[in-house]
Amino acid sequence: IVAAVDIWAQGPAALPPPQQPRTPVLPVEGERNVLITSALPYVNNVPHLGNIIGCVLSADTFARYCRLRNWNTLFVCGTDEYGTATETRALEEGVSPQELCDRYHTVHADVYAWFGISFDHFGRTTTPQQTRIAQDIFQRLLVRGFLLQDTLEQLRCESCGRYLADRFVEGTCPFCGYAEARGDQCDKCGKLINAVELKNPQCKLCRGTPVVTPTQHLFLDLPKLEGRLEAWLERTLAVGDWTANARHITRTWLRDGLKPRCITRDLTWGTPVPLDGFRDKVFYVWFDAPIGYLSITANYTEQWERWWKNPQQ
């Protein structure tokens, strides 16, 4: 406190000169390098104040603090654009998913610029870099034996001639009886739902009655990673600043045992699966979207791996 008072009394002249911005911002050996991201806002609507407070404002505040400390700081974000919510919204508006994303990406960028959010780069997930990096990660998982193939029972609408991804289905919640539950979650009781569990299911596109049909999908073999993950958690929970909520949820997942997680969907809007027998499918958005942080950085600089594969700096 005494030192802070002394610096304050000396005024701005005692401060170190501000760091000149670099383009692009890259890690520098011997300096403190800080990479900041905020949750990628979903792009199928106009952002509101809650999106800014919940997604980007805290990260922006921290980025400004880091720059004031003269730390070498990169702050990236962008719109999350794949998935069923975009495809359903595009159908409602009578446009293609790409047209919808192009429109709302511009709206998002303009809103954050108006608020003065200090992104070094604001990108998006519908880019060739996203496809390249996501497919590369998929191929690495495949070669290392961390993927498996299995059959899922899925609702298919014969009238539309398509399998119905979770948000293309509505019906009665099997837990609380809410009549407008989605095929992935009930907005009334909050429980996660498998679409085939819905009572009185309806196709959201034509309001027809879908039928349960088997279809092949790819899964991330999480049980094979469980031991390695537990060992890593023991180390990081001991030294990291995990919140009590994060610790509880993570331990609950492990306590119940990890299950294989489906990473493909019967959709047209998404990153294509580069494997014979699955080329008519795309990656599930929760496999694909987190990779957006890497691809957005890669669209900012070809040297993106210096940020994402460089723990020493």
TrEMBL record:
Where is it chiefly localized?
Answer: cytoplasm
Report the family membership: Belongs to the class-I aminoacyl-tRNA synthetase family.
Looking at the Swiss-Prot or TrEMBL record, what is one Pfam family this protein matches? tRNA-synt_1g
Tree of life domain:
Eukaryota
Q: What is this protein called?
A: Methionine--tRNA ligase, cytoplasmic
Which InterPro entries would you find in this protein's record?
A: aa-tRNA-synth_I_CS, Met-tRNA_ligase_1, Met-tRNA_synth, Methionyl/Leucyl_tRNA_Synth, MetRS_core, MetRS_Zn, Rossmann-like_a/b/a_fold
User: What does the UniProt entry say about where the protein is found?
Assistant: Cytoplasm
- Name one cellular component (GO) term: cytosol
Record GO biological process: methionyl-tRNA aminoacylation
Instruction: Indicate the segments forming the Methionyl/Leucyl tRNA synthetase domain, all copies.
Output: 34-311
